[in-house]
Amino acid sequence: MKEEINAYLEKLVKNKVMPGCNWCVITSSDLFIDSVGYASLVPKKEKNDINNLYDLASLTKLIVTNTLASFLIDEGKLRLDALVKDYLPTFPFDNVKIIHLLTHSSGIIPKYDKYHLKSKDEFINNIALKFEPGTNMLYVDNNFILMGFIIEKLYDKPLDVLAKELIFEPLEMYDTTFLPSDKNRCVPTELTDERGLIKGEVHDEKAAFLGGIAGHAGVFSTITDVSHFVKMVLNDGYYNGKQFISQTYLDMWFRPLFTDDDGLRRTIGWIYGKTSRLAKKVCSDDAIIHTGFPGHHILIDRGNDIAIIMLSNSIHPKRENNKELVIKREDINDEIYRLLSKYDYI
Predict the structure, then answer these.
(1) Are 20 and 36 in contact (CB under 8 A)?
(2) 251 Cβ partners below 8 Å, 6+ apart?
(3) For a Cys-Cys bond, which of 24, 80, 154, 206 suits 309, CB 3.0-4.6 Å?
(4) What's the confidence (pLDDT) of residue 310?
(5) Nearest Cα to 336, choosing from 265, 260, 278?
(6) Which residues neighbour 107 within 8 Å (Cβ) at sequence distance 6 or greater?
(7) Backbone angles phi, psi at 324, to 5 degrees
(8) What's residue 202's pLDDT?
């Protein structure tokens, strides 16, 4: 099966859908993992490698911020029904709750220019409400930027320190980090007029303003490390025989809570897989999915006991290239499910 997945993905590389990717498919009995294509196209072509570090972008929301929020709720230090204002007193609205941030149902939209940020307070104060919290959904990075601020305040530690101590080390994600020290291992993202070729530094402008450490973006990782996190989820919150997160709260990641005008449903942190265009034709009724801007996606299907992880830098060298992979993501998942069925994994 591994060879067939590689052949399919290599066709996408040949057709310039993406420079390359590192991928992983997890089943109840096997783990398939490999690397295809190129890490870089400019200034020169460089072959991809399984040990390369990818800028995870929005997957940071799930692996770090959503997980730390879960720990705080389990510890009784954070409540889903609590107001954001209870933790961030200068927050301008008194009807936005923690659950709204975690499900992107807060209705908040930024009023600042992300390219010309001036202070951390802009993230807290310079926002507006597009709709009444809890009545719709709108995916906005500010929801998880604010959650990052709240987590740091409640733990009284920086987000990167918390992530390392509470997530990366327990899950043996030893190559996963904010602010990677070995930039040579990092897959480059976009070639921009302002920043040149972005390599080993967070691509997201807001996270860059926050020093590369934020609740919505900033983590770099390998495909192997990300597979550890995903295996933990598939194993009901256990990793290497030890409980990492409670089953009760993990189940909430799979429970749809809010629906937008297009029928897309969100759980705590994730998209409910059956309503996502990327998976609804093939996944079970117990699946979650999320994407990352550079070209990533994670699909965890508990009903079929399988998971798919794709890390790519399809915004390299320009973000306009990303449109092709966005279109193809659904086809990639369809093909992998077809092969899983062919080889009796589902």
Answers:
(1) yes
(2) none
(3) 24
(4) 98
(5) 278
(6) 96, 100, 129, 130, 131, 132, 133, 135, 136, 138
(7) -65, -45
(8) 98
> For residue 308, which of 201, 233, 199 has the smallest C-alpha distance?
233
Task: Report which of 320, 317, 319, 346 is spatially closest to residue 333, judged by C-alpha positions.
Answer: 346
- For 129-172, the three-class secondary structure string (H helix, E strand, C coil) is ECCCCCCCCCCCCHHHHHHHHHHHHHHCCCHHHHHHHHHHCCCC
What DSSP designation does 64 have? I
Report H helices in the chain. Answer: 2-14, 59-60, 67-74, 84-87, 98-102, 121-125, 142-155, 159-163, 205-209, 223-234, 247-252, 322-342
Among candidates 156, 186, 180, which has minimal Cα distance to 168? 180
Pairing mode, if any, of strands 271-272 and 238-239?
unpaired
What distance in Å separates the CA atoms of residue 338 and residue 309, rounded to the nearest whole number? 16
What per-residue confidence (pLDDT) applies to 316?
97
Locate 176 and state its tokens: 């996963």
Structural domains of the chain, ranges and CATH numbers in brackets = 2-342 (3.40.710.10)
**CA nearest neighbour of 64 among 163, 161, 133, 154:** 163
Query: What values do phi and psi take at 173, rounded to 5?
Result: -95, 65
What residues contact 220, with CB distance under 8 A and at least 6 apart?
53, 54, 55, 56, 176, 177, 178, 180, 186, 200
* Residue 248 contacts residue 236 (beta carbons within 8 Å): no
User: Taking Cα atoms as reference points, which of 56, 7, 16, 8 lies closest to residue 38?
Assistant: 16
Reduce the DSSP state of residue 41 to 3 states and report it. coil
Q: Collapsing DSSP states into helix, strand and coil, what is residue 181?
A: coil
Residue 68: phi and psi, rounded to 5, are: -65, -40
Regions of the chain with pLDDT less than 70? none
Is the CB of residue 136 less than 8 Å from the CB of residue 153?
no
Q: pTM of the entire structure?
A: 0.97
- What pLDDT score does 262 carry? 86
User: Residue 14, exposed/middle/buried by CB under 10 A (0-12, 13-18, 19+)?
Assistant: exposed
